Amino acid sequence: MSYTEAKEHTPGRLHVLFAAPYRAFENNTDERQLHVRVMLYMLLARPMARGDMTLRVIHGWENGGFEPDDLQHADYALHDLDDFKRIVKYFEKAAKQNTPLPSENPTVLADPLAHAIADAKAEGQMLADDIQKTPASWPAFEGGLALYTLFKMYHRLVYGEDDVYRCSQCQTPHGPREIHEFHLEEGEFALLVPLSGQVKASPSLLVLHESQLNPIEKLLEESFNMLQDF
């Protein structure tokens, strides 16, 4: 397998902006709010304005569950704050009416995992029968390290994380991406953005759990209103 599929704690574009990006978003950091606004402008507002941003809302895992088949998602083009507000209202309506939350096929983890396992077996690799249920074993086959890295990101976005910020690099269906993961007091989300120098016409992804839609809506509204003054 190729260990270039993913790298944990790699320098990303925020390392160019901030002297200590891993501390830039901690609650006791000086000028924290400035760091948050600059980050949102660089990683979210600019790709949105270019039409390169997609919002992925995840749901399905609960009570400690982490079966790949149970992780649901819905993707939406995100051009401006009004788009985000419409999606929030859509999920709120579904919750109030007690109807199933929006979800799409193919599944975001289970389908690529099944294909990667099938390819490994076709090449003669012996894998445990329960490997789909043991994510830590996925790096044993080609493509598995990237899937495991994405699995950990999704898991932290659902169940929480102590680290306020982390940056990783990972292969995705759209090519290599920097994963900027945030667990802030304002809300939890991840931004998957192209590597430096690959920005133009390259899709980016904002990922969050459906429970974070309202907190992130408030954060974006406050931040974008402030950015319009500059």
Shape: globular
Summed over residues and divided by their number, the pLDDT gives a mean of 94
Low-pLDDT windows of residues: none
> Count of helical segments?
6
Helical fraction equals: 25-40%
- Based on secondary structure, the structural category is alpha+beta
Query: Whole-Å distance between the termini?
Result: 48 Å
Number of strands: 7
Structure described in brief:
The protein has 230 residues and is α+β, with helices and mostly antiparallel strands. The protein contains six helices and seven strands.
Written account of the structure:
- Helix content is 37%, strand content 21%.
- By secondary structure, the chain is an alpha+beta fold.
- Strands 1-4-5-6-7-2-3 form a seven-stranded mixed beta sheet, with helices on both faces.
- Strand 5 and strand 6 form a beta hairpin.
- The chain is globular.
- The N and C termini lie far apart (48 Å).
- 32% of the residues are buried.
